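Appendix C. Worked example: SapC family protein
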Amino acid sequence: MANHDILDNKNHQDIKVITHFDDKFSEKINSALIFPNEIKAAQRDYPILFIKNPETGQFQSVVLLGLVAGENLYINNGWQASYIPAMINKGPFIIGFEEKEENGEKVKQPIVAIDMDNPRVNKESGEALFLDDGQASPYLVQVNQSLKTLHDGSQLSQQMFAAFLKNDLIEAVALNIELNNGEKISLQGNYTLNEEKLAKLSGDALNELHSSGLLRLAYFITASLGNIQRLVDLKNKQ
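Step 2, the predicted output written as structure tokens:
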């Protein structure tokens, strides 16, 4: 269970975080959430799909990392892709909110917290969080950028899916894969964009998607499905 501390340069001056990916320290998940502000970078390496949040029923975008549960084919003596999703790159950190009083009113301010029970967190090895003068280390600056990506992206995600749904672009997709050894894998519960409907957009619908930057993201998403073959190739090499 997570044990989150609000991060500060006094209580966590000596804390380090192991950042490499190997058999011991590996995110053994076959998908990871991503957000619209990551899609341009992510589509080069990963298949991008949509899933429904089991609690809210709302769509979320994910990158596919493996073909079976608990499998991450991008980890092999390090992370084998040019971009690491912010949800993973943030490490054992989260954004929390602290209530403070400003001008007689209570406002929620974002804060950074660290999971002290995460196995990557220790005092012996890894990347330091703070420099000797108490300033944030380059690693912590990177973490803060990943957290900002998640914070900003969560707002953009609602806008993106609202536009895709408005134009009836989202459709279910079943991924049926056969490996070289004859094993058959079927991935259900995923969604993507209908390329035919996307190509037929015109008038106000096309202009709205284009002006909002979502048209470009839509084409990135459909193009990313070519990376499913990369996953199949990695699986066949095992």
